[in-house]
Design goal:
Helices cover 0% and strands 58% of the residues. The chain is mostly beta strands and 243 residues long. A twelve-stranded mixed beta sheet has the order 4-5-1-7-9-11-13-15-21-17-20-19, with no helix packed on it. It has a ten-stranded mixed beta sheet with strand order 3-6-2-8-10-12-14-16-22-18, with no helix packed on it. Strand 19 and strand 20 form a beta hairpin. The chain is globular. The termini are far apart.
């Protein structure tokens, strides 16, 4: 269990090497949960500096972990609902995160070859300035993104399979910048949401479902309420717009 500093917003960094990480709401303090590992070098280390808290796998570099055989390294953590500027740094790992109902002021995820599912099943309790995701060759599914309540989002990836689902309650205009390499990229935008998608790409295969109008490289879905403005820059990618 890690208690939050007395400041209004805690900068929480989870630095994780290889293995599995599960995040969910429900903690009474800043972070609660368990870590399961079979090498003493993997024991989590907690560092606190002012309003910053860092929980990392071991004291060494993340790069040493793949040399372990039969690795067991799993974090099952719950986060509290005090304001958090959350950063997740990871290598090759599997991750399932339910972040709905928290108070995230920013979210940054940087990982390597990963399999990740992040969901916002209920609205973020505060406005998020920036949601930033940077990954290598991965499989990533982000759902309930409207509930994240961000002002801006950036997503950069290498080759892989990526689904960005903007379901949820869109409370304000949001801008999204996507850069991806040789990948399958699916954007799920519910019917009735006003969305403008501009595609700057190389030899991309573009598939826009019903309800989208096209003018050159701009795709528009008419709707009411706040607007999603999305810029997609890809190499040779398969890009699908769907409900």
């Amino acid at each position: 269990e890690v208690t939050a500093p007395s400041s209004s917003t805690t900068r929480l960094t989870l630095a994780f090497g290889a293995g599995e990480i599960r995040l969910a709401p429900g903690a009474q303090s800043l972070v609660e949960g368990t870590a399961t590992y079979n090498y003493s070098e993997l024991k989590p280390v907690i560092q606190t500096d002012g309003n910053s808290v860092r929980i990392q796998t071991g004291e060494g570099t993340l790069k040493t972990f793949p040399s372990f055989s039969n690795l067991t390294n799993r974090w099952d953590l719950q986060l509290g609902d005090s304001p958090i500027d959350l950063t997740i740094e990871a290598g090759a790992y599997d991750s399932t995160c339910e972040l709905g109902g928290l108070s995230l002021t920013n979210l940054t995820v940087k990982d390597g070859a990963a399999t990740v599912a992040i969901s916002f099943s209920t609205p973020n309790k505060t406005s998020m300035s920036l949601l930033r995701y940077e990954t290598g060759a991965s499989t990533v599914k982000l759902t309930g993104l409207a509930n994240a309540n961000f002002n801006a989002m950036t997503f950069k990836s290498g080759a892989g399979d990526y689904t960005l689902d903007f379901s949820g309650q869109l409370q304000r205009d949001a801008t999204i910048s996507l850069e991806s390499g040789l990948s399958n990229l699916i954007l799920v935008i519910p019917e009735g949401v006003h969305a403008i998608v501009t595609v700057e790409s190389g030899a991309s295969n573009m598939n826009a479902g019903a309800g989208w109008s096209q003018s050159g490289n701009v795709y528009i879905q008419e709707g009411s309420g706040p607007t999603l403005t999305i810029l997609v820059k890809t190499g040779a990618a398969n890009l699908t717009l769907m409900h």
